[in-house]
From TrEMBL:
InterPro entries: NAD(P)-bd_dom_sf, Sc_DH/Rdtase_CS, SDR_DHRS6-like, SDR_fam. Belongs to the short-chain dehydrogenases/reductases (SDR) family. SUPFAM superfamilies: NAD(P)-binding Rossmann-fold domains (SSF51735). Coiled coil: none annotated. PANTHER family: DIHYDROANTICAPSIN 7-DEHYDROGENASE. Keywords: Oxidoreductase. This is SDR family oxidoreductase. It comes from Brevibacillus choshinensis.
Amino acid sequence: MTRLAGKVAVVTGAASGIGEAIARRLVREGAFVAVCDLDGHRGPEVAAALEQEESGAQFFSLDVSQEEQVRSVLQEIADRYQKIDIMVNNAGIGKAGTVLEQTEAEWDAMMSVNAKGAFFGCKYAVRQMLMQKDRGSIINIASVAGMVGVLNRAGYCASKAAIVGLTKSVASDFAEAGIRVNAISPGTVDSPWIQKILAGQPEPEVARSQMEQRQPIGRMGTPEEIAHLVCFLASDEASFITGSNYVADGGLTAR
Ligand code: NAD
């Protein structure tokens, strides 16, 4: 599988879960992957495992909510590898709560990482892609929480809806320039994030079963199932697709 041979990809939040699966998949398809994450312990481990593959990977310490960090890390990657073909804005955080419980600090944190992080990622990826002969593809990981009112997730829903709007705006502004921008909205995916939430429940197995049954397909998604979609959207097979929001949710929003 070398659909992405010679491509340079950046994946944020690549030290865990969905981001790690995306990084793994893109490397297997022949892309070099910049593994970007806050986690300076797990991030280098993920990159080291992928370095064994032919196209390779490297860890970059990055907090996506800090504009100067996003600017300088993307600049460093472009200087070193001459281009950025694929930008995956995946890093995200979530705190539970209705508007009654959520604090301003929680709201600000989710907006900073989820919405502002994607904004900075788009901004500096577009800036670089406009300077390249072959432009590129940007993929923003939103959520079904950006489309429907997932219970008890006020700030998270708002931050993910912002990503869907941002995706459409950037796609419209730069379609003519040849840059494609799409979002993916997963339903519940069995990642360390969800595993941590379940471990904190009084009856984790009951909570897991409830989470699985919420999706008509009767199970959670896997990180790899989201990575397949990223791979498609990053490839030339998706050359006519921009400004779209792809839902991968086992039918959750179909009901
Ligand atoms: P995860 O917690 O397993 O992984 C998230 C990664 O992002 C971690 O490695 C973490 O260190 C990193 N990160 C957090 N804040 C960061 C920051 N400021 N800068 C850089 N890196 C940062 O989560 P996951 O389930 O793999 O989720 C990945 C993305 O998918 C998130 O955007 C999440 O909102 C979205 N999503 C997840 C699900 C799900 O059910 N798991 C569903 C819909 C959407």
